[in-house]
Amino acid sequence: MSGEARLMWDDGVTRYNFGPGHPMDPVRLELTRRLVGAFGLDRRIEVTGARPAGESTLQLVHHPDYISAVRAASEDLRHGLEHYGLGDGDTPAFPRMHEVSALIAGLSVAGAEFISEGSPRHAVNFAGGLHHAMPGSASGFCVYNDAALAIARLLELGMERVVYLDVDVHHGDGVQAAFWNDPRVLTISLHEHPRALFPGTGWPEECGGDAAPGGAVNIAVPPGTSDDGWLRALHSVVPELLEAFRPQALVTQHGADTHFEDPLAHLALSVDAQRGAMEACHDWAHEYADGRWLALGGGGYAVVDVVPRAWTHLVATVAHAPVDPATPTPEEWQQAVYARTRAGAPQRMTDGRGDAGWSSWEDGYNPADPVDQAILATRRAVFPHHGLLP
């Protein structure tokens, strides 16, 4: 077992359940954990629990009245709390909502504490990445913003520069809002264009408050973007900013809803491109952040075919035990998938695209390419704030 990494896990996270028919089915967490075990990855990484985040920790990001509202909604599902985003829409109340949301937050905060101490260097909580929750309200299936809370804990422990990188298909709006005016945090979000998708924010011109100009970075790619364009956008913006900002820790969010099978969005990525981004984040953590890396899950609503494979690759990458994409999924896991969902399981850990290719920004700008237009818009909006040329 590697002492360099922790998998933050508690079976209780599967109680994060908005009810039948809701897209955020907790079976995705259960099946991911089973696939991690079927590959023996839980023998290559230390599996660690944590206490739920307490009141003082939650208040690092969230308003006290909102925390009280979540508690109230957990105890009385009929309580009218639409003002706090806890109505009958995307984020309805469910029993013990406060407790399980605080547990997920506690796992991410504990992971942040581990990497701050430097042993282990890496931690992963694929139940986390609930990046839409705002300081005073729930949003987009997210109750407590564990990503923002983990970053706030790193700052509380004395870190002066933290980078948050979000590759979910949706804009990481809650984390951006939490640190809009904090020059210690650089938030970077690569997402589908806000004209096409919730939450309608994440334009390249959104680049930080008066106290932190250039502190928010938004790369908004068009619907239909596939592996090569998406990876080109990632690599054309992120490494130069990391080198300029010199983070002491890297926190990344790996929503699997960029996949071509995801029912709620319109990008066209494969598991292979998602895995490529995970490997890049691992490399960047070592190159720019002294190896300190906290990796989180996020969205992802193809709960059988995509999410378990994507996040198993994430755990494997964090554990320094990568799974060959050509590897068949274990028979025991395929049987468990059928028993649990009555659906057939994917047969391999790849979508057959191999190592997704991409061309670097230095290879030339194509003014007719909408992805290149998106990249250039971001570079023009943000790079000068960091002393970089667009």
What does this structure look like?
This is Acetoin utilization protein AcuC. Pathway: Ketone degradation; acetoin degradation. Residues 342-361 are annotated as: Disordered. The protein is built from eleven helices and eight strands. Helix 7 packs parallel to helix 11 (370-382). The chain has a single domain (2-386), classed as 3-Layer(aba) Sandwich (Arginase, Chain A). It has helices at 27-38, 55-58, 64-75, 97-117, 146-156, 173-178, 227-245, 271-288, 307-318, 331-341, 370-382, and strands spanning 2-8, 45-48, 122-125, 162-166, 185-192, 216-221, 249-253, 293-296. It is of the alpha/beta class and 390 residues long. It has an eight-stranded parallel β-sheet, with helices on both faces.
